[in-house]
Fold:
Amino acid sequence: MRAILNLAFHIDEAAMNRQIALSASQLEQWKQEVVLEVSARMEELLAKRGIERAVGREEMAEILGVGLATIDRLVRDKVIPSMTPCNRRLFLPSKVFEALEAER
Structure:
């Protein structure tokens, strides 16, 4: 039975490889579409559960209407909270707003 399942898997895998042969540009476009779709669905799911989405430096700067240098200074001076999972600085906008309000 296991040999039959393995054979079926290899046949299906070979058939799939033939069906999805893409050029490099098509593959890149497909990857971008997948990322956008997954991101959109994750945002919907987080919103339904009331979970805030963390944002990066650029998006936090855009939300606050300031430049990246200002964001970096606020982080360095420990005015606003941030986290760095996987070497990427992220912010929870609600926590940033709370910190900025407390600074007033």
The helical segments are 2-19, 24-48, 57-64, 68-76, 93-103. The first strand starts at residue 55 and ends at 56. The chain has a mean pLDDT of 83.
